[in-house]
Amino acid sequence: MQTVDLHSDDQSAVEQAAALLVDLLPEGWSTMESALREVAESLPDERISRIAREGEEVVGWVSGQEAYIGHTWELHPLVVKRERHRQGIGRALVADLEERVRERGGHTVYLGTDDERGETSLANIELYPDPLEHAARITNPGGHPYEFYQHVGYTIVGVLPDANGFGRPDIFMAKRIAPLAAPQT
Ligand SMILES: CC(C)(COP(=O)(O)OP(=O)(O)OC[C@H]1O[C@@H](n2cnc3c(N)ncnc32)[C@H](O)[C@@H]1OP(=O)(O)O)[C@@H](O)C(=O)NCCC(=O)NCCS
After folding, report:
1. Integer Cα distance of 131 and 91 in angstroms
2. Do residues 73 and 109 touch, judged by C-beta distance below 8 A?
3. What separation in angstroms does the CA of 89 have from each of 86, 94, 123, 153?
């Protein structure tokens, strides 16, 4: 497996990345048209767009965009081909994205991972008045990917109650990927 830039002139790879979105995250991208738009938006030089490929087959895709100039990048989105889950491809793509962010001077990567399917203990309940208290006690009966991100070093840093409608929160996670000096006191 190789991890390489996704280029706009590689139409087959662009379409395979879009097809992964529709297959794996249909809540966000229900049609090829919307998924192709998302992939196209990841291709300009100011973004990071990387695919895991085996020959001509795309087995995963990750993208990132600068969110706090010169500091922090958002990972969005990440998908690994269904038949290839739990083989280390997601971990490799996240590590690759982090390396690309370091090259561009960033020190933190963050992401939002929605719970739209009621997979975690944060779903289908009232999270106010203390969403962070619920987040501190999160459990994962449905196999939500937040645990994948914990395995690769991310920490839950917040939760947005009802982000996608009542009981469907977004879970925010982040990781420091480069040393950062604390301010002198
Ligand atoms: C989440 C996803 C990218 C993980 O990719 P993957 O290639 O299967 O992950 P890896 O094999 O690299 O797993 C890395 C570690 O995380 C663990 N892990 C992977 N998915 C997990 C899950 N859903 N729950 C708990 N742990 C998980 C693995 O066991 C492995 O642990 P270890 O190396 O410490 O033993 C993949 O399942 C996917 O594409 N899911 C659908 C799309 C999606 O949810 N994307 C994220 C939206 S924010």
Report:
1. 28
2. yes
3. 7, 9, 28, 15
Q: Quickly count: other Cβ atoms within 10 Å of residue 82's Cβ.
A: 9
Nearest residue to 61 (alpha-carbon basis) of 76, 44, 83: 76
Listed as ranges, residues in the chain with pLDDT below 50 are none
Nearest CA to ligand 1 atom 5: 90
- Whether 152 contacts 103, CB under 8 Å: no
Residue ranges around ligand 1 (CB below 6 Å):
24-25, 78-80, 85-91, 113, 143, 145, 147-148, 151-152
Q: Which of 86, 117, 150 to probe ligand 1 with, by most ligand atoms within 8 A of CB?
A: 86
**pTM beyond 0.90, yes or no:** yes
Domains and CATH numbers, the chain: 1-106 (3.40.630.30), 108-180 (3.40.630.30)
Q: For residue range 71-93, what is the model confidence (pLDDT) as tens digits?
A: 999 999 999 999 999 999 999 99
**C-alpha–C-alpha distance, residues 172 and 38, integer Å:** 21
